[in-house]
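Running this now, will post back.
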Amino acid sequence: MKHIIVIILLSISFSCFSQEVIHAAILNKTKLINENVGHFNLENDKWSIDNYLYTMNENIIDSLTFVKLINKAILEKSEKWRKGEIENTYLVEKDEILTIKKVLSELNHLNKKEIKTIRKQIRQFKNRPREWRTWPISITKPIFSDDHQFCIIGFVFGNTGRHTELYKKTNLKWEQIGTFNMWAH
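Update: finished.
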């Protein structure tokens, strides 16, 4: 019984960690998220690790912690986001026809600027051929370091590009400290 309680408490704390870092990661990006979890496209050979660290400024994270994050990310399995896992976002299903009314009805506490941005993104989504869309973005599940001080999240921008962001927890807030593995179509 004690083991079950411990497992439940750990999953709740992990969920809180995930919500905080995901909120920080998508804050200025979008509220339209692909329901399919993105996948990391990372390599763990020496050249790739050195390249990632060089791209970000090698001194922001120790290389052992970084290599462990990359290895965890490579092992991560893709799945679907469930409603409520990412607060105040709209999960876009495959081949879904988006309507502004439907999307806005599922989102809470939006200011005028956010509503204007969502309207613009939905219009862009409808008016662009499938091959060149940048919305919705796909987000990977966050991968945490063993001490929960660092985290990586991958982003796929429709089918026009991708990158991975590195976050560090400072003063009880998650801050983006680096971007690596950038690719553009």
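Confidence is low (pLDDT under 50) at residues 5-15. More later if anyone needs it.
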